[in-house]
Design a protein that fits this description.
It comes from Melaminivora suipulveris. The chain has helices at 17-23, 27-33, 46-52, 57-65, 80-112, 123-150, 158-181, 193-220, and strands spanning 3-5, 72-74. The protein has 240 residues and is mainly α. It has a two-stranded antiparallel sheet with strand order 1-2.
């Protein structure tokens, strides 16, 4: 596939695990599985934390480094099939990984910090609803629409594309709701590492989802529908 790629940097083992948890979406799931305390014990370095648990530091660094999202942009001459492959691997699969961990962290923050003025009450439920809607949406694309477009499209493609565009607008409205619940994903002063990691992960999700929608609405879909149907993407998804 023709693309501009930036190779992700290797995670620094001298960095505090709490800082890694906040700055690298997805790291919290790795730390939980390895039983590394990134919240209360987040001040120790990754190297020290791995040594205390007798973990293979190189393997942990490699796993964390793989979580970093390379910046990628489809290049000129990218075919619809190549673009679809990029969308599925870079966005669909990433969303499937992102949301369960974000839901888990949101439930924890809401439970532990219940009663605090800035707690994002209702966030976990909103994320669960988004997760269900995205899973359904992506399944429809992968099972029906994308195979049709990869084969060159046909006269019936405009109808499912219209449905996907409408669902994209719904996803944009869901993102706006999450932004309101989280004060634009800015953690309050004194927020714990889990709270900060949650908001960092939400910001990454929002960026990924907006870029995902942009590629479909503005690059892929217009190749298979009348020009009039592409006017007015709408602003709810953040494309404009």
């Amino acid at each position: 596939m023709n693309a501009i790629l930036t190779v992700p940097a290797t995670v620094d083992p001298a960095q505090a695990i709490g800082q890694i948890a906040v700055e690298l979406p997805g790291a919290t799931a790795v730390f939980r599985r390895l039983k590394l305390d990134f919240c209360c014990g987040g001040q120790v370095s990754l190297r020290q934390a791995a040594a205390e648990k007798a973990l293979d530091l190189d393997a942990v660094v490699q796993e964390l480094s793989a979580l970093q999202r390379p910046a990628s942009l489809p290049g000129a001459g990218t075919t619809p099939a190549e673009l679809i492959g990029h969308i599925v691997s870079r966005y669909h699969e990433v969303h499937r990984q992102q949301l369960p961990e974000l839901i888990r962290m949101a439930r924890r923050v809401e439970a532990v910090h219940r009663g605090k003025p800035h707690v994002p009450a209702g966030l976990a439920d909103a994320l669960e609803a988004m997760h269900e809607e995205l899973l359904s949406h992506m399944h429809k694309e992968e099972a029906i629409l994308f195979p049709m477009l990869a084969r060159g499209g046909n006269s019936f493609a405009a109808q499912p594309i219209g449905v996907m565009r409408a669902e994209h607008t719904d996803h944009g409205e869901a993102l706006a709701h999450i932004a309101r619940l989280t004060t634009d994903m800015v953690p309050p002063p004194g927020a714990c590492n889990t709270w900060r990691a949650l908001y960092s992960g939400l910001a990454q999700l929002a960026d990924d989802l907006v870029n995902h929608i942009h590629l479909e609405n503005n690059v892929l879909f217009p190749q298979f529908e009348p020009a009039a149907a592409t006017e007015g993407c709408g602003t709810a998804c953040g494309c404009s």
